[in-house]
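Moderator note: this is an archived Q&A kept for reference. The question asked for a predicted structure of one protein chain; the sequence and the answer are reproduced below.
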Amino acid sequence: MSNIKNFYLTKKGLEKIEKEYTELKYFQLSKNREESPEFLVKTRMENLENILRNAELIKLPAKRKQDIINLGAEVVLEKPGKQTNKFLIIGSLETNPEQGKISFESPIGQALLGRKVGDKITISSPVKTIYKVKKINYQHL
């Protein structure tokens, strides 16, 4: 069994990591040792290399599986009182809860995986709330 962690990324997220890596590599080559905080640059480059080696693109599921929540799904949830929330289920490197981008490893992400429209999920953080899955969309990938 392997201890290597895959990093699930959207195409845009992978491009962002590749760009940062390229910029750091160029920065490292253009500076001499005295000018550059070499240890920090080297550490970040090693982290980025690990991500790039173990990156797995989030792909559009087969049409017959697009009614099931998985990585890459944009999900509309309804809370009691008809208030809705929209979440994009992605890998942990691209999360931004304020923008509705949540990790599949988060409590809400875990509760949503494998669910369908009409399913209800219960989230207890800090208050117990029951959500109903209203819509699943994979069109943004």
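Archived answer notes: Helices lie at 11-30, 38-53, 107-112.
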